[in-house]
Amino acid sequence: MHIDAVSALSHFKEFAEEERCHEHNFVHSQCSRMNMMVTNMLKTGRATMPQSNAEVHAIAAVKSAEELPGLHLHHLTARRNLMMVFVARTKLNEAVTAGRQAVAESRSLLGSKHPMTVSLLLEFANATLEAGDMPMAEELLREAATSCVCLFGEAHMDSLNALTLLGQVCAVQQKFGDAQSALRASLRICRRLHGEGTPMTLSTGNSLAAVLLEVGDFDEAEKLLQHHLHWCEEIHGPESEETQRAAELLISSHERRWWRPPLPTASATANQSTNGDGIGNGV
């Protein structure tokens, strides 16, 4: 009887372990299917449709991943997808919350310098930018730009995107020195990866020129704008958006360079002197 009881207990434990494995595999499979479904909705643009149930599936995928013991890549994919679905549906506060959790989990599971963490960090920075949180976006983009250049080198699209966005965010916050540094690096990478006349190169050059105008460097701004205006007209035609922007910036540079404050008229001078010392109006 004792041997039979031990044997039965052993069989029960094996059965229970087998059941746990089946359940674990089922949850893994379920998470994988849900994540693939939401990823496909994001890629095809269906997540933005009013009748789309992408948000429901994304939340379900996160809850399913939470049933798994410990952190797993399914967690990161589910959180990332949820963030992107919220961005697509302009639920930006929810997107920032989901993104913050995704980045924290990715750092914990993979480390701060892992390519997946860095890519997620860049997407999270875009979400905070959409939400209008410029200081937070700048902080994230600085980290993303440094990590991208360190991991992939300068001549990589993630490095380029991070530096370009960082320059634009700094410019909006009137941090023109930092904006110049980031946009100069971005323009150099654009020319190396894409050549002179591509839309991204021309757009980045125009952004740098706008920053140069803000700090009063008219010579370099005009030289850059004239160079880009030639390419804009040659490749995209005189009516293209970047051609028009380059032309407007060039006109603005000429106006700022040669503008002088108007000289005061005689009557204005007389009024200022009599009103300034309290004498004259009544004399």
Give me some keywords for this one.
283 residues, mainly alpha
What does it look like?
It is a single chain. The protein has 283 residues and is an all-alpha fold. The chain has a domain at 196-258. 80% of the residues lie in helices and 0% in strands. It is built from twelve helices and no strands. It has helices at residues 2-44, 54-66, 73-88, 92-110, 115-130, 134-152, 157-172, 176-194, 199-214, 218-236, 241-258, 266-276. Helix 5 runs antiparallel to helix 6 (134-152) and helix 7 packs antiparallel against helix 8. The longest helix has 43 residues, at 2-44. The radius of gyration is 29 Å and the shape is elongated. The model is unreliable at 11-16 and 276-283 (pLDDT under 50).
Structure annotation, total helices: 12
Distance between the termini: 127 Å
How does the helix and strand content classify structurally?
Answer: mainly alpha
Give the tally of β-strands.
Answer: 0
SSE map:
Elements lengths: L1 H43 L9 H13 L6 H16 L3 H19 L4 H16 L3 H19 L4 H16 L3 H19 L4 H16 L3 H19 L4 H18 L7 H11 L7
Helix pairs in contact: 1-2, 1-3, 2-3, 3-4, 3-5, 4-5, 5-6, 6-7, 7-8, 7-9, 8-9, 9-10, 9-11, 10-11
